[in-house]
Fold this sequence. Notes:
Layout: H1 7-23, E1 28-30, E2 56-58, E3 67-74, E4 82-91, E5 96-97, E6 114-115, E7 137-146, H2 159-169, E8 170-180
Antiparallel strand pairs: 1-2, 2-5, 3-4, 3-7, 4-6, 7-8
Amino acid sequence: MSPSAGSSALWALALGTTLAGVAGAFTLHVDGAPHVAQAQVYDRDGCGGANRSPALTWSAPPAGTRSLAITMFDPDAPGHGWWHWIVADLPASLRALPANAGQADGGSLPAGAFQGRNDFGAIGYGGPCPPPGDPPHHYVITVWALRAAQLPVDRGANGATIEAALRRDAIASAHTEITYGRPHPGR
Length: 187
């Protein structure tokens, strides 16, 4: 994690480790981890990917879970990090999301789920797109087990707003880290 990582990223990593350990074997699997497939890379700003969210699977959340949420955060981005994907109000019984579930229209998300606004300014998934030549960035994908059936936030809220609600409502979380870097131009 870079020194520029915001407190949000540090908290998310600490929560994932602490609460997952307390709650038992709540785990998350990201297809292709620990690397990012080209299909998952952002499709603008010279990144050349297909902007498809990865397929995710997770184990049963702890007792008392009433809903789930998914976040993807880059703590290595300048400033306070970068929100790439936020999904909330997923049913507690759900155990997977297929690849490309993060499309803007949310077509493959369960009824009632919603996606927040990523730091690209769009609703839905926004894949990795670090500056060329930077060391590879780390992307923390987290599944959150929540006490509430619905998060008390506006649909389309940004990642920081939704994270604050997740923090207040989390029973447990599980995370996986994936990495991606763009080569320096001309190399």
